[in-house]
Each structure stands twice: as structure tokens, then as C-alpha cells.
Amino acid sequence: MWLTIYKTINLDNKVALITGSSDGIGAATALLFSSLGAKVAIVGRDQSKLDKVAAECESKSPHHYKPVVIKADFIRDEDVVRTFEETISVYKTLDILVNNCGLSSKKGFGEPEALADYDRVQQINVRSAVRLTELAAPHLKETKGAIVNVSSVAGVRPNARGWSYCMSKAALDMFTKCMAGKLAPHVRVNTVSPGGTRTNFFSAHPDPDAFLSMVAQSVPLKRIGEPIDIANLIAFLASDAARNMTGSIVLSDTGMLVADPYAK
């Protein structure tokens, strides 16, 4: 399953830092990268989840590489810096940075504490990616590496309730484009923009399964994305198979943006 479409993709012995990798898209990416021979550093806030992912990564690795496991909360700048320093301390180099860490907004515009929530969303969804990119760039230039930012269809599809989340993803998309120009020709920078994907992102919803089923019926492909769908695309963009791509915002949204609002 993991290697079906990757006969031409080689991540063997590449070093990858993958944020937000204790579950969901980040965990699927860490598992896929490990199965393709990469050495990974995984990051998240839940130690038990991280330990589980680390064990699965080691079992899937053809070399039985043990991931570097970093418990961190990117609401704190010092945790962002520590994450990078611990990765480099162990591996001494870096080939791939996957900025996947993110969270949703909870406060509607004008609600009490909406601005505090906005600051929290921007810190984790945007500033952490900016800071890690700043730290990683010199190492990635040496290895001719790649950055993949995980954004969202929300970056181009407005949602008034999720206004600060939408803004954060639009900012991340533009950051990708700016850095693609800045870091070329040494480092490629691309974005993956998922649509509805079956992760814990929707766990706060009263009935996540019913909500995701409703979303599936509203999109042309009539399905919800799975974390591996996004991980597949991240692996492609991180590899030399995508050597001709930089500054791209690649959708994997089950057709959400082309859905016909008048279709019955």
C-alpha cells in the first residue's frame, strides 16, 4: 500500500523534519517517509501519540531507523527553536522540512477573545513555519533540499466562522510563493492544500462522522480525503520526482473548489 506509486521516488537516507506528526496528515507522512527509507524527526504535543507513531515508523523503515521524537507546543517560539536544534543535534543535516503543524480557529469575528484566538492561530499556523524555515534554510541550501507547507483549501475558500484560520492559510500560501523565489535555485518550496480530510481536526464537532459524510456528499468525488492521500502528495513534492516544481499550491480537495453550487 505504502509504496504502490513510488517506484520512482527515492527518499532513502533523506532527513526530514515533520511538524504536527503525532496523528493525522503528519503521522501518515512520517510513516510514508519512513517506509521510503527516510530518517524522520516527529513533533507534537501528545507524548503517547508520538511514541506510538515512532514505533510504527521504526517498524516500517527498511533500515529500522528510530525517529527523533520531540514533544513541543508551537505556541511558544522557544519550542519551535528547540525542535529544530534537537533535530540537527541528532542528524547534523536536513533534506526536507514539512510544515504541517496547525490548528483551527474557535472564535467568530467580534466575539469575546476573538483577537486572542487570532493571535494563537497565526502563531501556530504561520509564525512557526516562518521561524522553522528561517532556521532550516541554510541547511537545506547545502543539501539542495525541499520544503512542503501544508495549507488548506480554506486559504482560497472563505468561511466567515473560520475567518482567522482562512487568513492563516492564505498567508501560508503566499509565504510559499515568496520563499520559492527567495530560496531558488537551491531549495524548492511548495504547498499542499487539502480539502476535507479524515483527521482529528474535526473532533470538536458534535458529530464528526455525520459532518464528514455531509461534506463528502457536497463535493464532486463524493468522498473524504484520507491522511495517506495528502502524505502521498507531500512525498512526491519532497522528492526529486518534483524537481521541476517550486512555488506551487497543489490542491487535494476531492474537487471542492470546482463543485457546482446549482447541481442537484
Automatic annotation (TrEMBL):
<dbReference type="GO" id="GO:0016491">
    <property type="term" value="F:oxidoreductase activity"/>
</dbReference>
<protein>
    <submittedName>
        <fullName>Uncharacterized protein</fullName>
    </submittedName>
</protein>
<keyword id="KW-0560">Oxidoreductase</keyword>
<dbReference type="InterPro" id="IPR036291">
    <property type="entry name" value="NAD(P)-bd_dom_sf"/>
</dbReference>
<dbReference type="InterPro" id="IPR002347">
    <property type="entry name" value="SDR_fam"/>
</dbReference>
<dbReference type="Pfam" id="PF13561">
    <property type="entry name" value="adh_short_C2"/>
</dbReference>
<dbReference type="InterPro" id="IPR020904">
    <property type="entry name" value="Sc_DH/Rdtase_CS"/>
</dbReference>
